[in-house]
Amino acid sequence: MAVPLSKKMQDFTQEVFPAIIGTNRKDGSVEIVPVWFEQKDGSFWINGGTNRGWFKHLQRDPRITLLLIDPKEMFRWAQVEGRMVNWAEDPGGEHINQLSHRYLKKDYQGPRTGRITIQIEPLRVTGAIDGWR
Amino acid sequence: MAGAKKAALSPAVRKLAALPILIVLATKRDDGSVQLNPVWFELEDGFFWVNSNTSRTWPKNLQRDREVTMLMVDPKTPDRYAQIRGRLISLIPDPKHEFIDRLAHRYTGQKFRELAPDEHRVTFKIQPVTVTGVLI
């Protein structure tokens, strides 16, 4: 079941840094890459092309772990174990453009077609932001 | 990846590894889900070295499944990163906590804190196998 985020986590997830996501490859190994994200209504939202490895992995195994870490002060971090609960096409790239404004304060310069938005529900939160658990 | 060859690391990757940044270590829990932890590390002799006390979850995960993925992110430009797939090749007890003191020195300029009475430290030697990402 989805867990609600603490006030500290809600504040932390408004800060601007990429989320590091871990997904399961078919061979059992883990892929980790940084991606843009936003947290809204208690869910995490990321965006990518359908050809991204992590999206293929998530379709097979919806479990995903996010590491949120302040790159300037790496002891400020939280680990979110979650699950992809939904994905949808991002027609016209509206969502990626919104993320671009969050991260770069300008319109998205890359391709706006063939993109998808993924919704991730948090199931467990650990790490230094909420205190060790 | 058993018996896989050691990956050669580019100057850019080695330069990033020389910074006192944390490396993100991905291990697998026994239910197959992914665990991510930022940890102290050093790159020495072409191997990645990390250290932990034995009671944490990620060292247990790593001993059960020796395949590990690591990520280093450029602190100045977070979209520049190197993903390193590696393999645990040895586990070295650190009873006199020499290695953790050395790591602590790299990050804090000081010796590591006093260990708890029942705390045991162990060093993990990880061989890089492949490197991908925006900093290869």
Can you give keywords for this protein?
heterodimer; A: 133 residues; alpha+beta; Pnp Oxidase, Chain A; seven-stranded antiparallel β-sheet; B: alpha+beta
Task: Describe the protein in words.
- The complex is a heterodimer of chains A (133) and B (136).
- Chain A is globular.
- The mean pLDDT of chain A is 94.
- Chain A contains 3 helices and 7 strands, in the order αββββαββαβ.
- With 133 residues, chain A is an alpha+beta fold.
- Chain A has a 7-stranded antiparallel beta sheet, with helices on both faces.
- Chain A has helices at 7-12, 53-60, 94-104, and strands at 19-24, 30-35, 37-40, 43-49, 63-69, 77-89, 115-127.
- Chain B has a 7-stranded antiparallel beta sheet with strand order 2-1-5-6-7-4-3.
- The radius of gyration of chain B is 15 Å and the shape is globular.
- Chain B is α+β, with helices and mostly antiparallel strands and 136 residues long.
- Classes of the chains: A alpha+beta (133), B alpha+beta (136).
- The interface between A and B is medium-sized, with 26 and 27 residues.
Largest sheet of chain A: 7 strands, antiparallel
CATH topology of chain B: Pnp Oxidase, Chain A
Question: Which fold does the CATH topology of chain A refer to?
Answer: Pnp Oxidase, Chain A
Kindly give the count of domains of chain B.
1
CATH class of chain A: Mainly Beta
Give the overall shape of chain A, derived from the CA principal axes.
globular
- The number of helical segments of chain A is 3
CATH architecture of chain B: Roll
